[in-house]
Structures are given as structure tokens and as C-alpha cells.
Recover the amino acids of this structure.
């Protein structure tokens, strides 16, 4: 009886470790099944359009979106708080639909199309870290010589596309208006 219990306990423990590792992997990936990258280099955003138009892939894909992901740091100029290791995520409102709308803390939803050129959405975790509020001015730095200022237009709840990176993030159309992301344009599929 002791031997049977020991074997059973070992199997339960093994299954628990496997389940835990699987959940950790899903959390690390966020809500994206596949991310195409070129070792941190930018590539032609037309790649996303080509993949979306491919009839062999169409039945397997819910959506494809070109975008930019850049590690950055953020300072809330109104509160004096800073946060490093923030992901700058460029999203395309024209292709955001299949991924769902961002649900904001004030109950509104958006695909990002209503952002003014100087506005960003921020993740709930970044808002908490900065103690940021709608309307706050943010200085976003990508590298030592590249900084851009934006205003917080909304706080995206950590659900649906708002949980994309599972880390503090700024969400913005990378080519919207007169403000461009530091470093150029890239593609996320």
C-alpha cells in the first residue's frame, strides 16, 4: 500500500509540474499564437498583408497584423514616476478587428483608430506602476538618444488584446499622425 501511494504521488507531482510548465509557457506567449521576427531587425510590413492574402493560410488564421515591438522606458512627467522594461507595441487599427477591441478602464472600447497623434493607450500594469491617469504626459525612451512625448488617452484592461505582452506596455499606431515611433517601422504577424 505504501509503494502504491508513493507511485501515485509521484505521478500526481509529475502531472502538476507539466501542467505548471504549460501554463507558464502560455502566460509568457500572451494572446498570440505566432510572432514573426527577424532578430530584432525591422522588415517590410507588406509581409503581413501577403500572409493574410495567402489562400493556404486563410483557414488557419484568425488575424494577422503588422506592428512594432520595442523595449523602452517611460517617465510620467506629471507624477514623476518612471518604469523601465516597458514594451512599446505598435498596433494597426485597420487590422485590429479579429484580435478584438481594447477594453478601457473607463468602460469604453477602442481599436486604436480614435487616438490623436500625441496619444497612447497604456496597459493597466503600466498605469499602476506609474500611478498614471488619463491625460498624463509620458516621455518614452527607446535607446539613449530617442525620446518621444505622448499623453495617456486610456488605460487598457488586461484582457483580450490588452493582455498581449503580459508586461507593462504602451499601445499606439506606429505611423499615426505626425508622431512616428523612434527607430522606424517593422512588422509583427
Amino acid at each position: 500500500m505504501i509503494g502504491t501511494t508513493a507511485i501515485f504521488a509521484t505521478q500526481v507531482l509529475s502531472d502538476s509540474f507539466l501542467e505548471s510548465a504549460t501554463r507558464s509557457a502560455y502566460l509568457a506567449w500572451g494572446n498570440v499564437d505566432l510572432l514573426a521576427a527577424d532578430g530584432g531587425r525591422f522588415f517590410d510590413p507588406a509581409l503581413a498583408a501577403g500572409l493574410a492574402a495567402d489562400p493556404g493560410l486563410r483557414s488557419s488564421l484568425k488575424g494577422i497584423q503588422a506592428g512594432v515591438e520595442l523595449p523602452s522606458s517611460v517617465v510620467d512627467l506629471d507624477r514623476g514616476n518612471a518604469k523601465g522594461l516597458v514594451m512599446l507595441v505598435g498596433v494597426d487599427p485597420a487590422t485590429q478587428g479579429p484580435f478584438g477591441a481594447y477594453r478601457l478602464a473607463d468602460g469604453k472600447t477602442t481599436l486604436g483608430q480614435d487616438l490623436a497623434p500625441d496619444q497612447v493607450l497604456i496597459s493597466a500594469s503600466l498605469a499602476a506602476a506609474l500611478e498614471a491617469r488619463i491625460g498624463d504626459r509620458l516621455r518614452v525612451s527607446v535607446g539613449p538618444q530617442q525620446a518621444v512625448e505622448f499623453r495617456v488617452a486610456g488605460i487598457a484592461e488586461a484582457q483580450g488584446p490588452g493582455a498581449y505582452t503580459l508586461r507593462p506596455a504602451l499601445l499606439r499606431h506606429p505611423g499615426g499622425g505626425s508622431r512616428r515611433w523612434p527607430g522606424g517601422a517593422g512588422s509583427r504577424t
